[in-house]
Specification:
This protein has twelve helices and six strands. It is of the alpha/beta class.
Length: 297
């Protein structure tokens, strides 16, 4: 897993870190986007040291794809550590109405000083950070109410830093978009697997059958009812003797993904299985739950 992921990283990552540190001086607060399905794995471990004491609102994005019960657990855990967190969805607009009031509360002291100095109408400048494909550009476009940040359903699209003005009346925000930041190597195999499963890493550099097999194992352990319901597997205990890969092939057989001679098309099965997970067709699923390992290490 580690070897297949390292080749993905371009040389601009170190430059991006330096640029973010420099541009922090220009903003009043930071919005950090995490993937609600993998909050821990989708957090760059260097981000705390990069952001320092800058007020930060942590948003669990893609909430409509994640397990709502587990998402609430994550929100509670993050709030206990940092004080500011919420679940949102950049596609559906879920909880977007809470973002500006939350930022205003976070910066209440600064806003009071602005008013005292007669700085009426000054816009709050907010930097948006997150790993590739966590949905930064879609988030900015949704909040701004206009398609201003470049979006594409693949990681690493945003290359340059850009300011986006929120056009809605009464918001007074300037959003600073940044390229996705990811670390150059994975010391934890599970982290790399989670990022691959959710699409944070380009499929073109991955062994999709291996990734799909890992996901199949996760779902049979964590969400067996959802897995069985989607693919007509009866009870998961029926397949206790099958390996995760053999169970994946069984899914392919039941979906009719067969080659000439009746052989199961494992490549197509893996691709469709991953696509259906990412689209929440199997169900709203979260692959990580809060534990004793803190999010802000």
């Amino acid at each position: 897993m580690e070897g297949s992921l390292i080749q993905w990283f371009p040389g601009h990552m170190a430059k991006t870190r330096r640029r973010i540190r420099e541009d922090l001086k220009l903003v009043d607060a930071v919005v950090e986007l995490l993937d609600a399905r993998i909050p821990l794995s989708s957090r760059n471990p260097d981000i705390k040291s990069i952001l320092g004491t800058k007020p930060t609102l942590t948003l669990l994005n893609k909430a409509s794809l994640a397990d709502p019960v587990v998402t609430e657990m994550w929100i509670a855990a993050i709030r206990q550590e940092s004080g500011w967190a919420a679940a949102v969805d950049s596609i559906t607009g879920e909880s977007f109405s809470k973002i500006v009031p939350t930022l205003t509360s976070m910066l209440s002291d600064k806003l009071s000083r602005w008013r005292e100095r007669g700085m009426i109408g000054r816009k709050i400048k907010v930097m948006v950070v997150g790993i590739p494909n966590v949905g930064k550009s879609t988030f900015i476009n949704k909040l701004a109410g206009a398609r201003k940040a470049k979006t594409e359903d693949r990681p690493g699209v945003t290359r340059d830093i850009q300011w986006v003005e929120v056009e809605k009346k009464g918001t007074g925000l300037l959003l600073l978009d940044t390229p996705g930041v990811l670390w150059p190597k994975f010391e934890d195999r599970t982290t790399g697997e989670n990022l691959a499963i959710t699409g944070a890493i380009r499929d073109s550099v991955l062994d999709l059958e291996s990734i799909a097999t890992v996901l199949c194992g996760r779902l049979r352990a964590m969400y067996p009812d959802a897995l069985c319901a989607r693919y007509g597997l009866r009870e998961i205990s029926t397949f206790a003797d099958l390996t995760d890969y053999e169970l994946l092939l069984e899914i392919g057989r039941r979906r009719g993904f067969l080659l000439r001679g009746g052989e199961i098309d494992s490549e197509r099965t893996a691709s469709v299985f991953l696509d259906e997970f990412r689209a929440a067709k199997i169900g709203r699923i979260t692959l990580e739950v809060p534990c004793d390992v803190p999010l802000y290490q």
